[in-house]
Amino acid sequence: MPESLVAPSPAAPSDAAARPRLAQRIGAWKHGIEHWCQRIEIAPDLACDIGSRRWLRGMATMLGLSVAAIALWPDFSSVEAATAVPLKARERDEFRSQTIAPLALGADAGRHMGASPLVRPLDSVPERPSVDLVATLGRGDSFARMLERVGVSDDDAGRIGALVGQAVPLDQIEPGTQFDVTLGARPAPGAPRALTAMNFRARFDMDLTVQRGGGGLSLVRHPIHVDETPLRIRGTVGSSLYRSARNAGAPIAAIQAYLQAIDKYVSLESDIRGNDEFDIVMAYKRSAKGERQVGNLLYAGLEHDGKPRLQLLRWGQDGEMVAAAGLAESRSTAAGMPVAGHQTSPYGMRRHPILGYVRMHAGIDYGAAYGSPIYAVADGVVSFSGRHGGHGNYVRLEHGGGLGTGYGHMSRIAVSAGTRVRAGQVIGYVGSSGLSTGPHLHFEAYRGGQTINPAGLRFVSGPRIDGKEKNAFDARMKALLNVQPGEALSSVAPALNASPGARREIDRLEPKTF
């Protein structure tokens, strides 16, 4: 069979070849439109050539765009949309119950509606027959103002004040005391409610109740048994006296008072050893209701190898801690540090840091932080307090026997002239007043009006107590040392079972009617 010859047909243009030609056409149209817009300038500046053909063409462009914008402006009709999470019937019921919940709790829900003509006001609204309140006596508040604030009538407030004043002075009721007050019905419409009962803690050892009976208001005392056994805490000093005392259960205030008391007789840094034992006795009260009240430090002791090194007892009207050793003898004691700092300049000749020439430095300078307290080194009387030349704010004390001390460059003075101060009392605060280059204390000492070197200064004091007080002092010391450590922490319940014959006189008093 002869082979047939077929002529090839012309190939159709491929897509790859058509795309560049289409892009070229679009590009040509785009450039043509840009050239036309540039030539015609359909959006000229309307602030120029006002009234010309060019300006009118721009105005027409603006109006056309405005019409198009208004025509395409969307309306404000609500648009329904499906919920983000489809709810089932059970979930819808749960949401409905939650929206009704405020009604069940006494609140309102939904829109507030005005009263209709069917609503008419009540002539009187029933009130609760009694109201229970808790009132607190604030600091600076008075007993009468507290009762007025609660809603007690003036007549009842006067009777209550007179009744309570028979048991405890009103101005001695501690701030923060809470009063449980029950007010009854009003005797007349618009009148204050009548007091039914009021209970409060008048003292640590007594509750008071004011109640209304057939004869009017009466006062009932409820004595509370209180045990006043002092709290004694003993322990070994170890690596830290403070931490050991805290671990033994001593309150922070008692430890601070203990350290301040013994610091006048021994050095806390070098004189106390790890195997020494501390002995702290403090006033302590326990009520039958479970409250505890910690009082002042009564005894501070320090022992070494079972023998007392130091024994201090609170004694006298001033409540000073007095050492048992040498009570009836005169003694010489070294002056303590007037400030917690370090010596920066000794007594003697030196070049003055401000004046620039050598002159006598008649004291010792102690560097300390600004505002640090300055203490009196011994008992004395303030002979000068105020501004004193280069000393700045200055205080001078007279200690008797011709000895005196001076304290300069204070930022603030804490005592006035004529005041009697005790050793360790704060008399001012470190500053940089007068001729001073920085905060420090300038400490001077005087004998017969002349300055002397304060280093090694000692004070001789006379007997602290006479022979008559010595026996009472020893008896008090023995009584405190007979207290067993932790004895005050035992249960106070057995004391409640005392026989009726042991009741106090206050327990036998009958309620009084006012």
Protein architecture, described:
The model is unreliable at about 1-10 and about 495-514 (pLDDT under 50). This protein has about 525 residues and is of the alpha+beta class. The chain has 8 helices and 26 strands. The longest helix has 26 residues, at about 15-40. The strands form 5 sheets. Strands 13, 16, 17, 18, 19, 20, 21, 22, 23 and 24 form a 10-stranded antiparallel beta sheet that branches. The chain has a 6-stranded antiparallel beta sheet with strand order 1-2-3-4-5-26, covered by helices on one side. Strands 6, 7, 8, 9, 10 and 11 form a 6-stranded antiparallel beta sheet that branches.
Entry keywords:
six-stranded antiparallel beta sheet; alpha+beta; 514 residues; extended
Q: Major sheet, described briefly? A: 10 strands, antiparallel
Question: Termini distance?
Answer: 150 Å
Let me know the average pLDDT.
81
Low-pLDDT segments, ≥5 res: 1-12, 494-514
Radius of gyration: 46 Å
Shape: extended
β-strand percent reads 25-35%
> Helix segment count?
8
The helix content is: 10-25%
Total strand segments: 26
Class of secondary structure makeup: alpha+beta
Cofactor: Zn(2+)
Domain M23ase beta-sheet core: 359-454
Keywords: Hydrolase, Metal-binding, Metalloprotease, Protease, Zinc
Protein name: M23 family metallopeptidase
